[in-house]
Design brief:
Helix content of chain A is about 10%, strand content about 40%. Chain A has helices spanning about 1-20, 55, 255, and strands at about 30-40, 75-80, 100-105, 110, 115-120, 120-125, 135, 145-150, 155, 165-170, 180-185, 190, 195-205, 205-215, 220, 225, 230, 235-240, 245-255. With about 400 residues, chain B is mainly alpha-helical. A two-stranded antiparallel sheet of chain B has the order 1-2. In chain B, strand 1 (about 95) and strand 2 (about 100) form a beta hairpin. The chains are: A mainly beta (about 260), B mainly alpha (about 400). The interface between A and B is large, with 35 and 40 residues.
């Protein structure tokens, strides 16, 4: 892969030398946008709690596959920079490079439901419940993990490699619990909030590709975002300008999110 | 450098192309069975939406890197013994001196399949299903959870069989045949692991691109096979060897043993070890019966996302849930020595829902200490002799009534 990248970048360098001036080094842009559901989505189904009912049913866990918030905003859309090699990291991110990112087992659900992890960071698997949980993370490029987290405990785990897709987090003790974590070798990733908005700060300016993924829809395919449309692999080509890059409101049809 | 790297690759692709051509021309006719072929991992192909063209690309790279069921090949990076592989591969035969070849097909393929996919002709009738080697995931081994098994681990499974399953003991095979089979099982695993990675690499390519047509395909393949080879080579460094000082002495008094069993019972039913959640309050393995192992979970997810898909057409077996072990029977698939059970609890069982429960390091805040794992071992080993585990007392009717 490396040789190919090198050849490609040499070619690109040559071309850009001849044709135009590449974006000046040190230019960074912030990408923002908002996902909104077009239509009505039925209320999330209650999950069947078969175990530890005292702890788990107290907060009425529901299916979090599709979470729609205020103003029909679609939460938990994962947005990340696609890059074959590690992109340049803005100095502002260095302060977070050694951070711990927590996934808590709270009321027999994963909080957050979708987490993002930069490979330099540590994933902290926590358990704030009074019952035992385990976190089973099945990876393709990393070693999978399945650790037991006693009530009130926490277990730090590290991942060396980036994963192409968010990987599933499961609790085998409580099989209704589902979550995801996206592992990348850079910090340029976001998960839409309850109102459907996301923001990725200080992305290297110039031609970039973003990937859009959602638990229910998998890759967001053929979705109009800004001036472009996502590919079969959920990728959007865009030119990141220095400063603000607002992709606007992205409409997702309610019927695509319907169960089935 | 580049050219030299690619030449072996294309030479091998060319060879497989010729074989394919011969097959197409019907030169293998005359009542002979067609040569055995490795089957692609169609579950992976469909899950990752590989086009037919891309599948052919992946198959070509696999043939170049690992050969065919009749003509196995191993790159230097795989660190496999080709001589052993050749004894295990191919059709079942023996020469005039009685030297047997085709050992894998003689002893293993009917359950584990030619490709090592655990879906041979007999597999559908077995519960549990035979192991699918292609992920490099093995359950019953001496190493840390995600580590590959050692060659000794595989030998142990071959010699002892897997109690409580259809896997028999091959104790009667001579050592060199066991060696050949172990090598071949690792070979099938590595091949499957490469296949999985090629799917992931292809995923990155543009629509029309095929992995076998990339100029750097030889380099990618070497890199990935070296990574896989290293994982297998590292296994023997990752064996779980509990601290001998913390192990219970062999000359314990019944009273000392009872104390340990009681401590184990506490842990078993408590929230720290949480064994009871899946193995059930009775330890009959009825606490959690709706979960899947990794292999079936993959199938289940695929069938959920594509409900119209016929899994059987992909060569997959029907999806099954996994049952936690019934601990009252005294049958332990990974071996019944205290050390075997210690390792199961320490690392959990890779590929299954059973999590590892040992501390990550001796001074880690969370996890079970070695002494606690030994307490659990004692409790688990006491369960088959517990009054609940004994068969119900036979009620014998008075003589007169029997008449």
């Amino acid at each position: 892969m490396r040789r190919r990248e090198m050849m490609a970048s040499l070619l690109v360098l040559g071309l850009s030398w001849a044709i135009c001036q590449p974006a000046a080094a040190g230019d960074w842009g912030t990408i923002r946008g908002k996902f909104v559901v077009d239509g009505d989505v039925s209320a999330p189904a209650k999950l069947e709690v078969t175990k530890d009912t005292q702890v788990c049913t107290a907060h009425h866990p529901v299916n979090e596959e599709v979470v729609v918030g205020a103003g029909n905003g679609l939460a938990n859309v994962v947005v990340y920079l696609y890059s074959r090699s590690t992109p340049e990291i803005h100095p502002d991110y260095q302060a977070q490079a050694d951070n711990q990112v927590a996934i808590d087992n709270l009321h027999c659900a994963f909080a957050p439901h979708v987490a993002t992890l930069w490979t330099s960071q540590t994933l902290l698997l926590k358990n704030s419940d009074s019952v035992g949980h385990n976190s089973n993370i099945t990876c393709i490029y990393n070693d999978s993990k399945n650790v037991l987290i006693p009530a009130g405990g926490e277990v730090p785990v590290k991942f060396e490699e980036k994963e192409k897709l968010p990987v599933a987090v499961a609790c085998n003790i409580h099989p209704w619990m589902k979550g995801y974590v996206l592992i990348q070798d850079h910090p340029y990733m976001a998960v839409t909030k309850a109102d459907g908005t996301f923001e990725i700060k200080n992305v290297p300016a110039g031609k970039q590709q973003l990937v859009f993924w959602h638990e229910k829809l998998a890759y967001l395919r053929g979705v109009k975002i800004g001036d472009g449309e996502t590919s079969r692999k959920g990728r959007l080509k865009l030119k990141v300008a220095s400063g603000d890059n607002d992709l606007g409101v992205v409409q997702i049809k309610a019927k695509d999110l319907a169960a089935g | 450098m580049m050219k030299a790297n690619s030449s072996w690759f294309w030479a091998r692709c060319g060879l497989s192309g010729t074989l394919l051509g011969m097959l197409l021309l019907g030169l293998t006719g005359c009542g002979e069975a067609p040569p055995a072929r490795f089957r692609l991992n169609m579950v992976e192909m469909v899950s990752s939406e590989m086009s037919r063209d891309q599948q052919i690309g992946i198959a070509n790279v696999l043939t170049a890197a690992f050969g065919t069921p009749d003509e196995p090949f191993a790159m230097a990076e795989a660190e496999l013994d080709l001589k052993k592989l050749k004894a295990a591969a191919g059709a079942v035969a023996s020469d005039q001196l009685g030297n047997e070849v085709g050992l894998y097909r003689r002893h293993c393929a009917h359950c584990h399949g030619i490709s090592g996919d655990g879906a041979g002709p007999t597999a559908a009738f077995l519960n549990p299903y035979p192991r699918d080697y292609r992920q490099g995931v093995y359950k019953f081994k001496s190493t840390e959870r995600v580590a590959r098994p050692t060659r000794d681990d595989l030998r142990r499974v071959l010699v002892e069989g897997v109690p409580g399953t259809a896997m028999p003991s091959f104790r009667l095979l001579p050592d060199h045949q066991l060696d050949a089979l172990i090598e071949y099982v690792i070979y099938l695993s590595m091949r499957g692991e490469l296949e999985q990675r090629l799917v992931a690499e292809t995923f990155d390519l543009d629509e029309g691109e095929r992995i076998d047509q990339l100029p750097e395909v030889a380099e990618i393949t070497k890199e990935v096979v070296a990574e896989i080879g290293e994982k297998w080579a590292q296994a023997s460094d990752l064996v779980i060897n509990p601290d001998a000082d913390l192990a219970p002495p062999t000359d314990r008094s019944p009273a000392e043993l009872a104390v340990s069993i009681a401590a184990g019972r506490e842990l078993f039913h408590g929230e720290r070890a949480a064994c009871v959640k899946c193995h059930g309050t009775t330890a009959l393995g009825d606490g959690e019966t709706t979960d899947f192992d990794d292999w079936n979970k993959r199938l289940f997810k695929l069938s959920e996302s594509k409900p119209d898909l016929d899994l059987a057409e992909l060569g997959a077996l029907p999806v099954r849930t996994i049952r936690p072990r019934n601990l009252r029977q005294g049958i332990y698939r990974g071996g019944r020595r205290p050390l075997d059970i210690y390792r199961r609890i320490h690392a959990g069982i890779n590929g299954s829902p059973m999590p590892g429960s040992a501390k990550a390091s001796p001074d880690a805040a969370v996890g079970l200490a070695a002494e606690e794992i030994w307490n659990l071992v004692d409790y688990v080993q006491s369960l088959p002799f517990d009054s609940l585990s004994l068969p119900p007392e036979q009620l014998v009717a008075p003589k007169r009534e029997r008449l």
